[in-house]
């Protein structure tokens, strides 16, 4: 692990330094968007429920009672524990929103309005506020009130239909891709809204629906249906309409992913596998011709890979400049020199002195790169400090604690 992300509060502030962000919501989509902003210098104040906090704290594998995922999702944030169902806590959010630049929430539509924290309330207090609202189906439309998780969005967008072998049960992508895509669309929306505010002085509402974020990545699915009535179906490891591009079994039980679909690349690939006859065939000189005979081409490539190990296939194709790759597990990633050279295998020193490997920060900016300024907070770690910044006295803060409206690490 050649990159250290040990907490460094003095690290360069980043391109979003001075940007104040309120994060309301939990789990993945909203918090991932806020994490991205925090990595590049934004001051993110995460609002959590006092008793248990964000459920992500207890998701998947735990270290000392807290998810190690939490250390990635909530780094560089401050945690304030507020019971948003309480009027006094809602008043605190309004006060925080007065000088906030961005508010991110991913509750079901109507929840914020029910607490008096909807756009009509907050933009009246702070017309410069930018509100990112992430939900399953968006803030409008006949499905707006349905509960929507990323897995449902992936199905509704058309993605799940494609992720399967023909005539087999569709499978899910092994991570919460719908939530992450929605988060990234939300970050794009925030940056666009900040640019608009720079010229107009006005904030606005960004409405991101999980299913729309995934649908936005579905390439030619809709125009092909519109123009030809074509309903693309699952194709397993192949890429329909582009040839050759597939996973090919090797002699050691592994698979080689080979993308020989460029015209000149195809000729080089055919030379490597000893099929110059296919490489020189004028009918296969372009993608359309190769798609028509993709089964024949796949058999030829598969016969060649079946007599070689994945390493032997990779070495031969690298020499010929044919795009190819192996299927990595996380153990492969952790040992890969390119990941190391690019700073993607980072290490964080935990508060107990132990070291945890985490993904590095992306994207990579040459002048203002993202930084790790502080570890993910404990629940309510920053409640007292943030409320003190709002002007509350220690006695007022203690009174709120005694009534269960807030919680924090400090006595």
What report would you give on this structure?
The chain has 411 residues and is an alpha/beta fold. It has 2 domains: 3-217 and 343-407, 3-Layer(aba) Sandwich (Rossmann fold), CATH 3.40.50; 245-249 and 255-326, formyl-coa transferase, domain 3, CATH 3.30.1540.10. The protein has 19 helices and 15 strands. It has helices at 29-39, 70-73, 87-98, 111-114, 119-125, 150-156, 159-162, 177-200, 210-215, 221-228, 263-272, 276-279, 287-292, 294-305, 310-319, 330-335, 337-341, 383-389, 394-402; strands spanning 3-4, 20-24, 43-48, 62-63, 66-67, 77-82, 102-105, 130-135, 204-209, 245-249, 255-259, 324-326, 345-349, 355-359, 406-407. The strands form 4 sheets. It has a 7-stranded mixed β-sheet with strand order 9-8-7-2-3-6-15, sandwiched between helices. Helix 1 (29-39) packs across helix 8.
Tell me the CATH architecture of the largest domain.
Answer: 3-Layer(aba) Sandwich
Helix- and strand-based class?
A: alpha/beta
The counted number of beta strands is 15
The rough form would be described as elongated
Text of the CATH class of the largest domain:
Alpha Beta
Nearest-angstrom radius of gyration? 25 Å
Instruction: Return the domain count.
Output: 2
Output the number of helix runs: 19
How many strands, what sense, and barrel or not for the largest sheet?
Answer: 7 strands, mixed
Helix content: 25-40%
CATH topology description of the largest domain: Rossmann fold
Which band does the percent of strand residues land in?
A: 15-25%
Whole-number mean pLDDT: 94
The largest beta-sheet arranges its strands as: 9-8-7-2-3-6-15
Residue runs with pLDDT of under 50 for 5 or more positions: none
Euclidean distance between termini CA atoms:
38 Å
CATH superfamily of the largest domain: Crotonobetainyl-coa:carnitine coa-transferase, domain 1
């Amino acid at each position: 692990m050649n990159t250290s992300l040990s907490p460094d509060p003095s690290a360069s502030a980043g391109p979003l330094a001075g940007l104040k962000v309120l994060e309301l919501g939990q789990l993945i989509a909203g918090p991932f968007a806020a994490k991205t902003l925090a990595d590049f210098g934004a001051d993110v104040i995460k609002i959590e429920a006092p008793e248990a906090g964000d459920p992500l704290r207890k998701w998947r594998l735990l270290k000392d009672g807290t998810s190690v995922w939490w250390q990635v999702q909530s780094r560089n944030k401050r945690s304030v524990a507020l019971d948003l169902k309480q009027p006094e806590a809602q008043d605190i959010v309004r006060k925080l929103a007065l000088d906030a630049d961005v508010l991110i929430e991913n509750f079901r539509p109507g929840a914020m309005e029910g607490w008096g924290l909807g756009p009509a309330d907050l933009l009246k207090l702070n017309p410069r506020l930018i509100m990112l609202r992430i939900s399953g189906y968006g803030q409008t439309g006949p499905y707006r009130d349905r509960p929507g998780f990323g897995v449902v969005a992936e199905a509704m967008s058309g993605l799940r239909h494609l992720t399967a072998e023909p005539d087999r049960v569709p499978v899910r992508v092994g991570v919460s891709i719908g939530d992450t895509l929605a988060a990234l669309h939300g970050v794009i929306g925030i940056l666009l809204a900040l640019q608009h505010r720079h010229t107009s002085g006005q904030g606005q509402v960004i409405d991101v629906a999980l299913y729309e974020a995934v649908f936005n990545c579905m390439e030619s699915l809709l125009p092909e249906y519109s123009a030809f009535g074509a309903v693309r179906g699952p194709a397993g490891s192949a890429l329909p309409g582009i040839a050759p591009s597939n996973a090919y079994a090797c002699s050691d039980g592994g698979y080689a992913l080979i993308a020989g679909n460029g015209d000149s690349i195809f000729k080089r690939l055919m030379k490597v596998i000893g099929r110059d006859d296919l490489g020189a065939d004028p009918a296969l000189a372009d993608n359309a011709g190769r798609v028509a005979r993709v089964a024949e081409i796949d058999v030829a490539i598969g016969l060649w890979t079946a007599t070689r190990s994945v390493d032997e296939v990779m070495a031969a194709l690298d020499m010929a400049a044919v795009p190819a790759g192996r299927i990595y597990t996380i153990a492969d990633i952790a040992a890969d020199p390119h990941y190391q050279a690019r700073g993607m295998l980072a290490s964080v020193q935990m508060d107990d002195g132990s070291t945890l490997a985490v993904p590095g920060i992306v994207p990579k900016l040459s002048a203002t790169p993202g930084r790790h300024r502080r570890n993910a907070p404990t629940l309510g770690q920053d409640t007292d400090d943030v409320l003190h910044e709002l002007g509350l006295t220690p006695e007022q803060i203690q009174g709120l604690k005694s009534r269960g409206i807030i919680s924090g690490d400090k006595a």
